[in-house]
Design goal:
The chain is of the alpha/beta class and 297 residues long. The protein contains 12 helices and 7 strands. It folds into 3 domains: 45 residues, no CATH class; 46 residues, no CATH class; 150 residues, 3-Layer(aba) Sandwich (Rossmann fold), CATH 3.40.50. The relative contact order is 0.10. The structure holds flavin-adenine dinucleotide (FAD) and NADP nicotinamide-adenine-dinucleotide phosphate. Its EC number is 1.6.2.4.
């Protein structure tokens, strides 16, 4: 253990390359022995507090006044080099809560065991330590403003709330602007989330709502949201000229950057201007909040 703490290469070999957390490390290095010589309080004091996880709210406060929804992927991934399946701490906890709420007395998502009633039963019942953070990522205040949303995978989360809200506004007789959602996932049969709900919203919004889907693993070639954006270049450009808001949510590492680039290309081709000018227009849209992002990686 002393060597793990002082020799970087040894640390990489024993810990990082194996993707171990501290409990797994203690178990493995202990080889069945307990760490009784080291006070438990010392471990606890040395561990950082668990960090908050952020989730986009995926419901509309107009439709659900007293309840917020989140849309999350339960992380359980095989990482090359890891001797175990790496399981997301919070998403499996949320899954355990859901299982409990559905009547399972001993939830064990992916074989994990959570003390979901909290310290001294503080969270008994279905209680979660949660905090709602103010966000500027929201619908335009005027419902007649058109919107273009790009949200592959869990990036669709806030847009489910947006479309839910616009469907309710349309039902209430308000004039709702064009609402286009570009959604992408791997396979239609496996991860096309909210498939049935979109149909309900379509009924309420009629041709004001358009869902454009990109299934990346259903055909011989990858189809991504930005490819679909290109197919809809003319409509996208027309809506932007009518001051449509443009929203992107999801993966910051690649998708969001590529969507930005493609949008600049669309503007350039459609308006017959150089690509550099298209990029400047996108930059200006960002500065004026006409282009908004809610991204993570
Ligand atoms: C602004 C914002 C909005 C977000 N909105 C959403 C949303 O709407 N929906 C959503 O699903 N997510 C969203 N996220 C991501 C979310 O906050 C969490 O990061 C995600 O749910 C994973 O949390 P977790 O605790 O389950 O996983 P963690 O336990 O934090 O693990 C996450 C990943 O880290 C890696 N990892 C963990 N432990 C190890 C290890 N020992 N060794 C190597 N790798 C490891 C694995 O790849 C694992 O899958 C958002 C993030 C931000 C910043
Ligand atoms: N069946 C499963 O096991 C499964 C299903 C979904 C998600 N997950 C896991 O869940 C996590 C995140 O899931 P998620 O649903 O938010 O996202 P995701 O499924 O990883 O991605 C959503 C969609 O975006 C596509 N994509 C990948 N790179 C892109 C890019 N540069 N530009 C545009 N689109 C791109 C993906 O295609 P490609 O991935 O085909 O390239 C997929 O169609 C990941 O850890 C993932 O491994 C697992």
């Amino acid at each position: 253990m002393t060597k793990v703490g002082s020799d970087k290469d040894y640390f990489v070999e024993k810990v990082s390359s194996q993707h171990l957390n501290i409990a797994q490390l203690l178990e493995i290095l202990g080889k069945g022995e307990k760490w009784t010589a080291i006070p438990f309080s010392l471990w606890i004091e040395g561990i950082h507090k668990i960090q908050p996880r952020y989730y986009s709210i995926s419901s509309s406060s107009l439709v659900q006044k007293d309840r917020v929804s989140v849309t999350a992927i339960v992380e359980s991934v095989e990482i090359p080099g890891a001797p175990h399946v790496v399981k997301g701490v919070t998403t499996n906890y949320l899954l355990a809560l859901k299982q409990k709420q559905h009547g399972d007395p001993h939830p064990d998502p992916h074989g994990l065991d959570y003390a979901i009633t909290g310290p001294r039963n503080k969270y008994d019942g279905i209680h979660v330590p949660v905090h709602i953070r103010h966000s500027n990522f929201k619908l335009p205040s005027d419902p007649s403003t058109p919107i273009i949303m790009v949200g592959p995978g869990t990036g669709v989360a806030p847009f489910r709330g947006f479309v839910q809200e616009r469907a309710a506004q349309a039902k209430a007789g308000e004039n709702v602007g064009k609402t286009i959602l570009f959604f992408g996932c791997r396979k239609k049969m496996e991860d096309f989330i909210y498939e049935n709900e979109w149909e309900e919203y379509k009924e309420a919004l009629g041709d004001k709502f358009e869902l454009v889907v990109a299934f990346s693993r259903d055909g011989p070639q990858k189809v991504y949201v930005q490819h679909k954006l290109k197919e809809y270049a003319e409509e996208v450009n027309n809506l932007l000229q009518q001051k449509a808001f443009f929203y992107v949510c999801g993966d910051a590492a690649n998708m969001a950057r590529e969507v930005n680039t493609v949008l600049a290309q669309i503007i350039a081709t459609q308006r017959g201007i150089p690509e550099s000018k298209g990029e400047e227009i996108v930059k200006a849209m960002r500065a004026s909040n006409q282009y908004q992002e809610d991204v993570w990686s």
